[in-house]
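Hi there. Long-time user, first ticket. I'm pasting a complex I've been working with (about 694 residues overall). I'd like to know whether the download I got is complete or cut off, because the file seemed smaller than I expected. Thanks.
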Amino acid sequence: MSTRPRIYLTQKIPEECEGWRLLRESCDVKVYDEIETGHMIVPRDQLLRDVRGVDALYLALPVQVDAELLDAAGPQLKVIATKSVGLNHIDLAECARRNIPVGYTPDVLTDAVAEATIALTLATARRHKEGIQAVHGGQWGKTWESSLYLCGKDICNSVVGIVGLGRIGLGVAKRLRAFGISRLLYCGRASKPHAAEVNGEYVSFDELLKMSDFVIACCSITPENHHLFNADAFGKMKKSAIFINASRGILVDQDALYVALASGQIFAAGLDVTTPEPLPPDHRLLTLPNCTVHPHLGSATVTARHAMADLSARNALAGLRGEPLPAPVPLI
Amino acid sequence: MKTITRSFSVLSIISSFVGNANSTHLINGRRMYLSYRKMSTKLKPKVFVTRRVPEDGINLLRQKCEVTQWDRDEAIPRHEILNGVKGVDGLFCLLTDKIDEEVLSTAGENLRVVGTMSVGYDHVDLSACRKRGIPVGYTPDVLTSATAELTMALLLTVSRRIQEGVTAVKDGSWGTWAPLWLCGQGLEGATVGVVGLGRIGFAVAQRLKPFGVSKILYTGQSEKASSAQLPAEYVTFDKLLNDSDFVIGCCALNSKTTGLFNADTFKKMKKNAIFINTSRGGLVNQDDLYTALKNGDILAAGLDVTSPEPLPTSHPLLTLENCVVLPHIGSATLKARNAMSELCARNIVAALYGEPIPCQVK
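Hi, the file is complete. Here it is re-exported in full:
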């Protein structure tokens, strides 16, 4: 009988990754095969069966980790490694109660996500979706259809408000400063010392909504901020404002967002995250010219994905050996 | 101007004696106003505007000039522009209007200034204007940040595969996940090559810096003092092509740069390189670009400018997933377009009233 620890991966790791080699070297690896079942995310009942008796759980996609899953796995479960920096899919309190350390992947994906957030902000501000459609669909008339054709919003001299100036928020702020913004506002539970690097001004959520030309959500999810962006919030924003969400879909009341966009209460919105993911192609948000949805591309660079896979593998292996994790989720 | 006003007053008093039976007063404010207007219309220079443009410029023109205008959103047809320019003193045009010998000679002797609402002037025959002593006004600076922002937007849309992403969301293919699905090229650690470190090129380079690029290269006719602020290294075109992960075309279109990007050029670039052009379509041999993209000589391309504009929907470049085409929206923000309209008007008014032209093509 094998004495190697057993690890279950909810998705395969690219073969060229160092992390894959490390796991194969020291563990019995079981990988969920989405091609075989045709489902991107492992179905719940199959997951509960597959995790029985495993020593480590490696999550490559945000499956729900709760008491039910931990019970199904069994008391021998030593570590959970999530390939993400977002943690709203994990009951951290329950893991702490059972002394199961949780590893995640901060820092290694910060640049990729900050860059993708800027890409989304710019594509939304400059109406790329409409522009590309006009080119392919033949609506692009005798160039400069009118002298205000597809005019978008300037970032230069604008007021940017970042909701949650964490690692990613700071990365977004640093990049935007080079665009000549006039003010960088931020809000959150407390002011941040690193805000000084970007001349960040700590304000209340309401003040940020009222004063910002660009409202960019980069915050982590807590029980308190579900549907933070609701009808009330959109009502407080400028009519000319652009809303960008790079956090998690649950931050936004999507019905309220639809109404705000369709009625012109805000200028436009760009979402890299939605509820659910994937968003159904017939979702009404997709019918709006001023709503841009990207398929959660935040960390989608080869560099970031490889680094996330490797760090997750090392988190798992450290947990299996009873050593401190390279990147443990801070205990609440 | 004061002399003219006084003359108006004298002439209007005379005309009130002579012309108007209703008048009982020599100095009837309303009648004087009408007379003033009639007199001043004859003396105000005439300007023809080739499109409906933001009001800031038109209002400024109307204060000092008599304005006739092709007040439509579509580009002015050739026969209409030839009709409209006859006898004018000034011409306010857009980059879609070819200002050549025929237009200038049809306009006639009075034409004293051409103002284009753009920073590019490849559509204006400069030597024909010079020959006639006609200065050409243009609109640098006021559109620099908008265009630099759009260049950054296009670069990121290409590098992060946004076009494919948006398509996947729309057609439901978002869901067939793989760990490296739609992974793009990060700017972190990349070498960026700017072809033409003018106002726009420099502004783009400034915005690239905090993305963690390791090196900024540039090429052009000569070194630029501004490069020290970035810093950016002056290299030959070939070295830039050889070393760069991102190649950005920001130079003006002229006889030296037409077709600069051709099969040879693309072969010299890295296979993972991304090519962005927000300058003019004429910079690129589009057939060669298509081949290069199809064969994988370069990774991807983004164009805000094409030949022609608009690009026909059947063009092969539009069949490629790794090619993004935008409908020339470089300066498309309200602020920039308003400022361009206003500056173009100021250039024209200055020339017509013998004052220094704020922005004249040298």
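A couple of notes from our side: The two ends of chain B are 29 Å apart (CA to CA). Chain B has two domains: 41-141+335-352, 144-325.
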